[in-house]
Amino acid sequence: MTRFFACLAVIVLVVCLLPTAVWAQSEKQGIALYNEAVALTNAIPTIESPLEKKKQALVKFDEAFAIFERTRSSKWQATTLEWMGHCYRELWRFQVALAHYEKALEIHHKIRDKEAESQTLRYMANIHKISGQYQNAIESYEKALLIARKTRNAKLECTILHETTSALKLLGEYEKARYFHEQAGDKNGEAESLDHLGEICHSLGEYQNALAFHKKALAIRDKNGIATELTRDSITNIYLDLGDTLKAKEIKPPRTGAGLWAPWETDGRIYLVQSLFNDAIKLFE
Questions:
Q1: Residue 130 lies in a domain
Q2: Rounded Cα distance, 285 and 21, in Å
């Protein structure tokens, strides 16, 4: 009788452990397929067929995902869906990419992986931005930012802040973009936003507001050792439009550079405003 129960216990143990062993083996196969797919997405594309690697990767990702579904490997399912989303994005199939990201987001939420949730929301925001749906992009970025802050992921938070500012600028919301630059500690981006605001005011004929924005940008650039030539050039142009050649001369760019106004070019424009054409011609020659 004792021997019978011992044999029975062994049989029960085998029956219980066999599915686990089979699942573990299947998961290994899924991971191998996943790694092959990732390698294909990172491979250098050929000139003849630049997107062929992405298509091949999708086949392997799909096979890997089917295995992860059978083994109930939620984390691997979500990660695979994200990579498939990346591939579809590269293939310009934005709605399909978005659908894969949304499925991945559902899984991350279900298994309470908050950092992964934030990252996936960021991917979705990028798709919205590429598609020209800037308001949807900003909403997704803001959700991602909230989670990144809760999980104290400073690096991801900074990345999201930068990407949010680019979407805001595409919407023309430079003041709000400047606020996000400030949060990210991005002085160059903050100065750029101020310069954009200055350019808008200048184009609208609001010269004093334009000067105020450009001067704030100039102060940030000077303090942080960021190139000032383009900002100085913008201020010079405003003073020239106002007919104040003395102040225009004071603010002129201090040095030359590729694609920038040289000091003699600034002087030339000043002389033109003063109607001293002969002096201007000599400077431009």
A1: no
A2: 83
Structural domain count, the chain: 1
pLDDT at 3: 62
Alpha carbons within 13 A on the beta-carbon side of 23:
11
User: Residue 9 falls within a domain, yes or no?
Assistant: no
CA 42, chain centre distance (Å): 19
Band (pLDDT 50/70/90 cuts) for residue 26 is confident
Note the pLDDT of residue 281.
Answer: 46
Q: What is the dihedral of CA 177, 182, 188, 189, to 10 degrees?
A: -20
The 3-state DSSP composition of the chain as helix, strand, coil percent (nearest 5) reads 80, 0, 20
For residues 68 and 119, give the distance between their C-alpha atoms in angstroms, rounded to a whole number.
21
Q: Which two tokens stand for residue 168?
A: 């805001």
> Rounded mean pLDDT of the chain?
81
String of DSSP letters for 212-261:
HHHHHHHHHHHHHT---HHHHHHHHHHHHHTT-HHHHHHHS-SS--TTS-
Of the listed ranges 62-76, 201-215, 246-260, the one predicted with least confidence:
246-260
Is residue 120 situated within a structural domain? Answer: no
Distance CA 158, CA 155 (A): 5
Task: Tell me which residue range forms the domain holding 268.
Answer: 199-285
Angstrom distance (rounded) from CA 273 to CA 133: 44
pLDDT at site 183:
80
Sequence-distant (6+) residues with CB within 8 A of 88 are 58, 94, 96, 97, 100
- For 224, list phi and psi in degrees, rounded to 5: -105, 10
